Amino acid sequence: MAAVRDNVFPTRMNLTVTKTRLKGAQTGHSLLKRKSEALTTRFRVILRKIEEAKLKMGKVLQNASFSLAEVAYIAGDISYQVRESAKHATFKVSAKQENVSGVLLPAFEPDIQSGSGQFELAGLGRGGQQIQKARLAYTQAVETLVELASLQTAFVILDEVIKLTNRRVNAIEYVIIPRIENTISYINSELDEQDREEFYRLKKIQGKKKERVANAKREAKAKEDSGANAVTANETAEEVGPDVRNLLSEQADEDIIF
Description:
This protein is mainly alpha-helical. The protein contains 4 helices and 2 strands; from the N terminus they run ααββαα. It has helices at residues 12-74, 79-85, 128-240, 247-250, and strands spanning 91-100, 103-112. A hairpin with a 2-residue loop joins strand 1 (91-100) and strand 2 (103-112).
């Protein structure tokens, strides 16, 4: 199976750009890895707090239920008195955000307004102490419930963000970085092949040039040799001098008859 790579033209500029992309991918992988580790650490802390809050919630609700049972046994049904005395909310919840490695986690805080004067006459005839005890128990239960809701919301958000971050880390580590490295290897191999072809071409050109120079030298030497031979022949002819007439060969004698 062929290595997966980007479809790019093998040039030195593309090699530089691809190396820059590899550097950025490695930096992003490192940052996301550290972010995932930080979120996982906070996730474990929240998980431990949720476990403690749930155990606490069970005990608080148990005490509140017993307190309400005591009120119902001593004072009877006081729901109508509570509805009549409740004019405005004495327990409010304020929300804020907490930044954890770039992730905004909601945090809920209880806001109890004391000294409002409500429920002061409840249980005036009987059961006043048990009513106040039940009120404090349910106030503590609601505080614990708000704390648990804040932790559960942060838990769900962190769970999704950690999964998303881990998917990104794995994608960069096992898909993006290998693809970029394969692209760099392909460009380097193609550039090396081009360098070898260029070296062979230059070597052939240099050989042709040397061959032409050698042929030119041989032709020049041959011309010099032929010119030197011609000069030597002329000099020899000049040393011998002009031709001497041979009278015997030029004029034939008549035959003499005796």
